[in-house]
Amino acid sequence: MPELPEVEIQKRYADATSLHQGIATAEVHAPEVLDGVSEQTLVGSLEGEEFLSTARHGKYLFLELSDGKWTMFHFGMTGRFSYFKGSEDVDYDRFNIRFQDGHHLAFLCPRKLGKIGLADSVSTFVSEKGLGPDALSLGPDRFLQLFDGRRAMIKSALMNQRIVAGIGNVYSDEILFQTGIYPKTKVSDLRRKDMEEIYDAMEEILGKAIALQTDWQRLPDDYLITHRSEGEPCPVCGAPIKRTRVSGRSAYYCPNRQKK
DNA sequence: ATTCTTGTTGAATG
DNA sequence: GCATTCAACAAGAA
Question: Which residues in 226-245 of chain A line strand B, with CB less than 7 A from it?
Answer without folding.
Answer: 243
